[in-house]
Amino acid sequence: MLILCDGRLAEKPYKMPVTRQNIYSLEELCYYIYHNIYTITEEFFQESLADWLREETGHPVLAKKVHNMLGSEMKLKDMVVTILCGCDFYRESEIRSLVRVMDEIANLPIHKKKKIRADNYLRSGRCGRSLLEYRKLLQGSLAMNFSTEEYGDILHNQGIAHFYACSFGEAERDFKEAYARNNKKISLRHYLWVLLIQEKEELFESEAVSFGLSPDEINSVLIQYKEAAAQCRIPQGSKDDTERYKKQLTEAYAC
Prior knowledge:
Elements: E1 14-15, E2 22-23, H1 26-35, H2 47-55, H3 60-69, H4 76-84, H5 92-106, H6 110-123, H7 127-139, H8 148-164, H9 168-182, H10 185-197, H11 201-210, H12 215-231, H13 242-250
Antiparallel strand pairs: 1-2
Helix pairs in contact: 2-3, 6-7, 7-8, 8-9, 9-10, 10-11
């Protein structure tokens, strides 16, 4: 992604609190906030951000505004708007649209906000932290607030986190239980894929049949699995290169 910057590029990047991504300009900061709005919380705005804006990007006025907002009673959306208005990267209509999204997020019940938080950790690759958050949701007092399908979706995403951590046995159990609750083909497919990754071919065949998949559907699952492995240039049957293609298998499949 090419981002046009009118301001000064920082010599020292600013590291995003959740994703750990480095950014080098105010425009890049605005772009990050706009496209990661579900990860932005009050904790995002820290004194270190004000220091970085002043010392690295040459925006002392904006840095002072951020500093004054810290510890104040300003709402999160006001802080976001202050940053986005610090340069002309986004139009007023785009900023207003983002504010509406933030209002929707603010009105969500606490259990859904916590799921978003856990999913954000998963998407940013912080699997250990996401697993802690998912376990709290699944085993804590908020679990009763989720529908059967929503609970299954959390299990599915926990399975992805276990998969990234190469805990394939746990991922296998998560995906199977997720499918029993959410009845989503994506959870079933992930369950069958994890069986293949563990070289449990006989169990794969019996489970695929028990779940009512036709021969054509079983073949489709196999083809998708092999194509994903081939795209990442994984040798057939290799156990050593799992890290290289696990993201290919799961990247866009969180529930």
